[in-house]
Amino acid sequence: MQSPLTGILPVAPTPFTAEGAVDEEGMRRVLDCMIDQGVDAICILANYSEQFVLSDEERALLTRVSLEHVAGRVPVIVTVSHFSTQIVVDRARYAESLGASMLMMMPPYHGVGLVPAEAGIMEHFQAVSDAISIPIMVQDAPLSGVSLPVPTLVRMAREIEHVSYFKIETPFAADKLAALIEQGGEHIVGPFDGEEAVTLLADLDAGCTGTMTSALQPELIGPIVANYRSDDLDAALAGWKRCLPLINHENRQCGLRAAKTVMMEGGVIGSDHVRHPLKPMSQRTRSRLLQLAKELDLIALKWGK
């Protein structure tokens, strides 16, 4: 990448057939739809991609299919998280070899009782940085149960060459982003938020330069970031207020199922299947989701029709 990545970097859902197999053609259609949504980059194999129900072979397949199909139209961020440092290094090298523009990774964890000390976390990220030459985004999320205080994140940015992007989705994310930016200075190239942009305005106030949401409504959330960064704060606030009911419903009621359900309704993919032990959303939740999506005339809701 010639300049720092900013804007809207949504996570691509992983489509499955109704029987639960990886849908390769559906994956290609998801990527095309997201590009038509005007995204600044696409992230694959993240938590909202159901990375935790994919086999190693399926991950490798989806990495190759995605990077070959996107073919440089937008940057692709490949998530490589795993507890094993060697597995993360292998995944990172493979992703870069196929053309990934960036990696995203969580700190190593295996349940709340199996978390390395800070030295082990630093060594984990250092090993990946030593193996590749593209930026690394640190995903700081409650899911891991790993505490990454601001001084640790700043140390990572200063001491580990390719660590320069941060996705902060912890409670009180805005305060953490502000402290990270202040203490890290020039070493913090890309401060991002997540959680479907539910705290986006506060995080933009704190200095974040972009957001990593789902693929549900990036064509509406992206302009919020762009307007804010061009100092049109009224337009940014108005856009966020417009999107907020759907943001809230996705974040609090639907989770990773929302984008898949809307994409199935819009003909992007053939099934919104989620792998067990995940369960389909209730009809009540689905009906409200589609109502809110229709009110916003989302691209995903009509892309394949």
TrEMBL record:
It holds the Pfam family DHDPS. Keywords: Lyase. InterPro entries: Aldolase_TIM, DapA-like. GO terms for biological process: N-acetylneuraminate catabolic process. One of its GO terms (cellular component) is cytosol. SUPFAM superfamilies: Aldolase (SSF51569). One of its GO terms (molecular function) is N-acetylneuraminate lyase activity. Pyruvate binds at M212. Belongs to the DapA family. This is Dihydrodipicolinate synthase/N-acetylneuraminate lyase. It comes from Vannielia litorea.
